[in-house]
Amino acid sequence: MDHIKELREDFVSRNLLGVSGLISRMIPPPPEGKAFLVGGIVRDLFCLVYGPPDLLDVDLCFTGDVSKWSTLIARQCSVEVTFEPRFKTARFWIRSGSRDLHMDIAMARSEVYENPGSLPIVTPATCKEDLGRRDFSINAMAWPLEEAGYCRESLVDPFGGRSDIRSGVLRILHKNSFRDDPTRLFRGFRLLSRLSFQWETETQALVEEAIFEKNILLVSGARIRKEFVRVFLEKDPVDVLKRIYVSGLMEALVPKARWSEVLESSLMEAVSLSRMIFGGETSSLLPLQWASIKEWCHGETFFYLAILKGLQEEDLVRAIKALGLVGKTGLILKEAILDPSAFSRREMQPVDFLRLVCRHLLDAGLLYGPMACEARTDGQRHFLAMLSVRSGKNRKEAFLSGEDLIGMGIPPGKRVGEILRDVEDGVREGRITSREEALHWVRKESLRS
Ligand code: CTP
Fold first, then answer.
1. How far is residue 203's CA from residue 170's CA, in Å, rounded to a whole number?
2. Is the CB of residue 181 below 6 angstroms from any atom belonging to ligand 1?
3. Where are the domains of the chain?
4. Ligand 1 in contact with 59 (CB < 6 A)?
5. For residues 159 and 109, what is the distance between their CA atoms, to the nearest angstrom?
6. pTM of the entire structure?
7. pLDDT at 422 (0 to 100)
8. pLDDT single digits (tens) 131-180
9. What is the Rg, in whole angstroms, of the alpha carbon atoms belonging to the chain?
10. Is 227 a pocket residue for ligand 1 (Cβ < 6 Å)?
11. Residue ranges of E strands in 286-378
12. Who wins on pLDDT, 449 or 83?
């Protein structure tokens, strides 16, 4: 290794040691087992050249009992931990200096996918085995949490992630990866755009094959919607969307989806509208009805308007379903796209006003050329981050209690907790907006299971 490379590796290792020391001081050590920093945080420290890592999200992989450790953390740090029994993960927010840091502890596990696009069956595993179930080599590196001294060799990197970062390529770990979990295609396009990487040659061929096979249609709408929200939250969502369109992935979900300059302008407009509304900036275009607007509309609505406009009813309904746009968001989109002038009929209420904004967006592609929309700035990330769908911090009312569920005939036990968490997710994602909708959802769910 030449001298500069060596210095750089030392620098990264010291940073990893620093971060791992910081985390170890924030939470109590596990009573048993070994914990590792893993995934994005390790990758981002190696990618320093692409900008400083945000250190807002820390993933740990843990070889012991996650439930025991998370109980200890909850008690000693006075944080509210959400434990998810199926995959044995614990999530919580913890104060770090002047801001909150999101921590995710997952049991080290191996995964078996019974069907393409389904959720995996998991079994406990070693850290190395856990890295083998991951998406890309650059995300499959780990660093021990409580390693005392500095040692460059502490990095666990069984798939050559470090070398792929040096070469700027994105490589999957085995040839069934996209078949097992087609959402990795979205993850890949986000990373390519964010890091300016390229697919590794064999991976590129498998991407094309996976898109051609349309396995993405086997993934639930709710999961697809989460992937799109993550795309909208990227620093340059328009660039990521362009890649998704040009690759043909978008067409699998939205009939006749084609990339065009008009669409690009509309999407840029969506970015700046979300920014105006969710950042609370005043503008001659938007009167001061922010609070009501936010009630009615997640920032994602603006992107979907740009994406779906022009579709005829049958294609639109199909696309809305495939994209998981259920509930109020789906209704508003359908109404605004099929009848964009509906807002002018009544005295202007918040929902009418929202339609006005939608109308503006529908026209945006024609009104503004790409040059007029130099809208993609770093600040937008902040505004987009306020999209309420993603906010795990602002817990909303779940409309139901455990007693309600038991009253509906669901036996007391862990299933009650699971259902309540699902309802909470539904509320956060806008799929459930009232107690009636929550009850309806539970009835359907218990019939299904
Ligand atoms: N992961 C995976 N396959 C998925 C989702 C996640 O293999 N479908 C693994 C990856 O190793 C990833 C880690 O889980 O690095 C954490 O996932 P997540 O927090 O979603 O992403 P990050 O890699 O941290 O990336 P980002 O910077 O986009 O948050």
1. 8
2. yes
3. 2-167, 260-390, 402-448
4. yes
5. 17
6. 0.76
7. 80
8. 999 999 999 999 998 766 666 678 999 999 999 999 999 999 999 999 99
9. 23
10. no
11. none
12. 83
